[in-house]
Design brief:
Elements (H helix, E strand, L loop, with lengths): L1 E2 L2 E7 L5 H4 L3 E5 L5 H27 L1 E5 L5 E5 L7
Antiparallel strand pairs: 1-2, 2-3, 4-5
Length: about 80
């Protein structure tokens, strides 16, 4: 995506991670006006975003369960940015 001569990365967030990720669309500047550099940075940014989506999925699905000597079983989930 080109805006004012600067290239941007525009990526849709998968629906399963959108509530945790904070939205359905990510738009970030590639900080260049050169097409060749923008293509390179776009490829790198795409990989970074996919890694972030996978991290959100794994953190969401990670839970630690243990039992105290007496009492109920307790489950802890990892929290990110104040949301589950």
């Amino acid at each position: 995506m080109l805006r004012g001569g600067t290239y941007y990365c525009r990526a849709w967030v998968p629906t399963d991670v959108a509530p945790t990720f904070g939205g359905t669309l990510v738009v970030t500047s590639l900080r260049t006006k050169d097409l060749k550099i923008a293509k390179s940075r776009l490829a790198r940014k795409t990989v970074e975003l996919e890694d972030q989506f996978e991290r959100v999925r794994s953190e969401r699905d990670t839970a630690i369960t243990f039992r105290f000597r007496s009492g109920p079983r307790v489950t802890f989930s990892r929290w990110r940015n104040g949301t589950a």
